[in-house]
Write a structure and sequence with these properties.
The complex is a heterodimer of chains A (about 210) and B (about 550).
Chain A (H helix, E strand, L loop, with lengths): L2 E8 L9 E8 L4 E5 L6 H9 L6 E6 L2 E5 L2 E2 L7 E4 L11 H6 L7 H14 L15 H13 L5 E5 L7 H18 L2 E5 L3 H7 L2 E4 L3
Parallel strand pairs in A: 3-9, 3-10, 7-8, 8-9
Antiparallel strand pairs in A: 1-2, 1-4, 4-5, 5-6
Chain B lengths: L2 H7 L1 H24 L5 H42 L5 H7 L8 H12 L4 H10 L12 H26 L3 H9 L4 H30 L2 H6 L4 H11 L3 H27 L20 H33 L5 H35 L3 H9 L8 H21 L13 H26 L2 H8 L4 H12 L1 H17 L2 H6 L7 H10 L7 H36 L1
Classes of the chains: A alpha/beta (about 210), B mainly alpha (about 550).
The complex binds adenosine-5'-triphosphate (ATP) and magnesium ion.
Chain lengths: ~210, ~550
């Protein structure tokens, strides 16, 4: 198993009802797995736990053979090498498209960094607007840039949290195809959250259904 | 990596702890000093004077708060509801009173109402009336209330206005549709809704009045703050001063607790931003003119008369020879204000970011605690700081370090005290900046491999830059206006613009207060203008930031 989630439990603050209770599953390397479930069932919460923004109450998360979260173990998000695309994209508003993409590449040397950034820009079909700011982009363009920004540092695992929810139906279909192509080309292991069964069917090879 | 381990070595947590410790130390030492056995002086104070202090303080604070709210609430109401003639300029000008410290207004009005002042002179010239002959004397209490009302109403006005701006138009429209008139919808629907924000503004006004030294001492009103001053300066009785400080502190904390309670109800009334905001409408001619008249009247008393009088004094007293002293005093206050403001903002930014990185209950509660300095009257904080620093210097001496610092010569005490007192302003500015920006950019940066500090400096700080600058500006302005802390804690022979105004007024050399007073007001006004511009440009940038978020 590449990603292994064991008996994971979590609740926000001192809430009586935990958001996740004893969740277990595994993902093989290179798989693209969809997670569907009703609103409030804890899909986003699961991704936040895997990314390292929250610490589980119980259970553990093992990534590529390394325990990243368990009792007394906590690897902070920046050391997990997990990429994430947010529902609201989270593109840095004060940085250009290129700077956004280069943000995760600071370990590379100047030339390598520029090359990787160019590659990503091309895949996002944004090679003509590297110096635009996020607010100058359409929803679909922002979407692609944020996906490419997450992929640029070659994460071990990519988390997508409802990446298409702000797009209209036509664009969604196109984006689903694009994303699938890119993910397969880059051989990325991916966890894809959506409450839209069609999106998940279009992108994923396997589906986990989450309930309350 | 274990969390408890990273906490101790984390620079953000370190700053957080430093703020908390800095704020608590003066109060701990104050409490120790206050616990000293009662001396003769204290017995006298308790037996004969304490009752007056309590009554005068209560009367002054309650009436000041009441009148300031009577000005501030209607102003907020009419500027939000009506587009009356001159509104654009008036709304802008109504912030200006914040640049005028109450004590400066007090000296000016005291002079104006006195025998040689414009008021009596006018009566004599135009009506042949010499009120002085009828034993006219300026009644101190109503007069002080008037001064506090015209200088402090902006706190109520601004907070209530900010609340109303976020109410939806349909609330007002519905009350009207349901058959309520304008008055009835104000008293029946909006006043109860506004209550928490009125309480918020009123609490700030009360803190200012309780902290005041300049106005009350000039009019000979015996409040706790002036009593602490006279115990300390008049009788060098630190123990009694500390005892009274602790009592005043109790009153202030009770007030703060009531305010917290009032604010709690606010939570349930947040209107979603999708609704139409309450936009001003064009009123009937009569109503419009009445609004304009009211606003101009308020501006007349709070800004135009005081500033006009200062400039007329300036023409009388203008003299090149005054300038070197003025520059020296200005340099003193500007350099200590810059030092203190920088410390304050560094602590504030560090503390807020620590609570975001490690949002545990104790961390949040401690950060909240660190903001109490703002509610503590200047004289009280000064007593605490003196106790703390004299302990440190005694401790230094007992370890053989005799010139650790000389309490009568160092500005360290003053800068420390400013930072403790105004930490809250910086903290809230930074916090509101962060809450506008949200967590998403920080989290995105973390998944891209940036650690907490890199995330802050490369991503979050640029985004909250305006909030940091406006916090800086507001802290700086408050230090420029500050008097009680400066009076007690300044080193020997260290004069600031504020203390020189105080000294001139005390010696009744009224013309000479013009130059330093105008300088204080000009600097504060300019900085307040910068802060409000930043706020505007910030909200103007919002649509872009928001689209970036989408
Ligand atoms: N910051 C938070 N504080 C407290 N409770 C939260 C917080 N975020 C989410 N929750 C609660 O945790 C539960 C799971 O939320 P989560 O956002 O993971 O659901 P979701 O499956 O992603 O829903 P959606 O499809 O609407 O995005 C919900 O009941 C929600 O109310
Ligand atoms: Mg979600």
């Amino acid at each position: 198993m590449f990603l292994e989630v064991r008996e994971l439990s979590f609740g926000y603050g001192n809430m009586l009802i935990p958001s996740l209770r004893g969740l277990s599953f595994g993902i093989e390397k290179g798989e693209i797995v969809g997670i569907v479930g009703p609103s409030g069932s804890g899909k986003s919460t699961l991704l936040r736990l895997i990314a390292g923004f929250e610490r589980p109450l119980e259970g553990s998360i093992v990534l590529d053979g390394i325990t990243v979260a368990a009792k007394d173990v906590y690897v902070p998000p920046e050391s997990r090498n997990v990429g994430m695309v947010f529902q609201d994209y989270g593109l840095f508003p004060h940085m250009t498209v290129r700077k956004n993409i280069e943000f995760g590449l600071r370990r590379l040397k100047g030339e390598e960094r520029a090359m990787r950034a160019n590659e990503m820009l091309a895949m996002a079909q944004m090679e003509n607007f590297p110096s635009r700011y996020p607010y100058e982009l359409s929803g679909g363009q922002q979407q692609r840039v944020s996906l490419m920004r997450a992929l640029a540092p070659r994460p071990r695992l990519l988390l997508l949290d409802e990446p298409f929810s702000n797009l209209d139906a036509d664009l969604r279909e196109i984006m689903c195809k694009d994303v699938k192509t890119i993910l397969e080309k880059e051989k990325i292991t991916c966890l894809f959250v959506s409450h839209d069964q069609r999106d998940v069917n279009a992108v994923c090879s396997r589906i986990i259904t989450q309930t309350y | 990596m274990k969390r408890s381990f990273s906490c101790i070595r984390n620079p953000w947590i370190f700053t957080h702890r430093l703020s908390v410790v800095s704020v608590s130390l003066p109060f701990i030492f104050l409490a120790i000093q206050a616990a000293a056995p009662a001396n003769e002086n204290w017995l006298h104070i308790r037996g004969w004077l304490l009752q007056t202090y309590v009554l005068d303080t209560l009367l002054l604070t309650l009436s000041g708060v009441f009148i300031a709210s009577m000005i501030g609430v209607p102003l907020a109401w009419i500027t939000c509801l009506f587009a009356f003639p001159g509104k654009y300029f008036i709304e802008w000008a109504l912030v200006l009173p914040l640049a005028i410290p109450p004590y400066i207004s007090a000296y000016i009005y005291y002079h104006l109402m006195g025998y040689t002042g414009g008021f009596q002179a006018g009566l004599r010239t135009f009506l042949g009336l010499d009120v002085n002959r009828f034993g006219f004397d300026i009644p101190p209490m109503p007069f002080a209330v008037f001064i506090f009302a015209v200088t402090l109403f902006p706190y109520v006005y601004l907070i209530v206005k900010a609340f109303l701006k976020h109410q939806s138009a349909s609330l007002y429209e519905n009350t009207r549709l349901l058959g309520r008139g304008a008055w009835s919808s104000f008293f029946g629907v909006f006043l109860p809704l506004m209550a928490p924000s009125i309480a918020g503004g009123a609490t700030l006004v009360a803190f200012e009045i309780l902290s005041d030294f300049g106005v009350t001492s000039h009019f000979g009103i015996h409040t706790f703050s002036t009593a602490i001053f006279s115990a300390w300066f008049g009788m060098s009785d630190a123990d009694s001063a500390a005892k009274m400080s602790v009592m005043l502190l109790g009153a202030v904390f009770t007030l703060a607790a009531f305010n917290k309670l009032a604010q709690r109800t606010l939570k349930y009334r947040i209107v979603s931003s999708k609704e139409r905001a309450l936009l001003p409408r064009i009123p009937s001619r009569r109503v419009g003119l009445a609004c304009t008249f009211f606003c101009v009247l308020v501006l007349l008393f709070s800004v135009i008369i005081p500033v006009g009088q200062l400039f007329s004094w300036l023409t009388l007293s203008w003299n090149q020879e005054l300038l070197p002293r003025l520059w020296q005093n200005a340099r003193n206050i500007v350099s200590s204000a810059l030092a203190a403001t920088s410390c304050t903002m560094i602590l504030a930014v560090g503390t807020v970011n620590a609570t975001r990185l490690f949002p545990s209950k104790p961390n949040l509660a401690l950060a909240q605690f660190a903001t109490i300095g703002y509610s503590v009257p200047g004289a009280v904080l000064a007593m605490g700081v003196i106790s703390l620093f004299s302990f440190i210097s005694r401790a230094g001496a007992s370890f053989g370090i005799h010139d650790l610092f000389d309490i009568s010569r160092t500005t360290a005490m003053l800068i420390f005290a400013y930072a403790v007192r105004f930490f809250a302003i910086g903290y809230h500015a930074v916090e509101s900046g962060f809450s506008k920006v949200g967590n998403i950019y920080g989290e995105a940066a973390r998944t891209l491999g940036a650690g907490p500090s890199e995330t802050f400096f490369r991503v979050e700080m640029p985004l909250i830059r305006n909030a940091i600058i406006s916090g800086f500006v507001l802290v700086f302005v408050d230090i420029m206006k500050e008097l009680p802390l400066t009076m007690i804690l300044r080193p020997f022979n260290f004069n600031t613009l504020g203390t020189s105004v105080y000294d001139f007024a005390k010696n009744e050399i009224m013309e000479e207060i013009a130059l330093p007073a105008i300088l204080i007001i000009a600097v504060c006004a300019a900085f307040i203008a910068i802060a409000s511009l930043l706020d505007k440009s910030y909200s103007a940038a919002r649509p872009e930031v928001r689209r970036g978020e989408r």
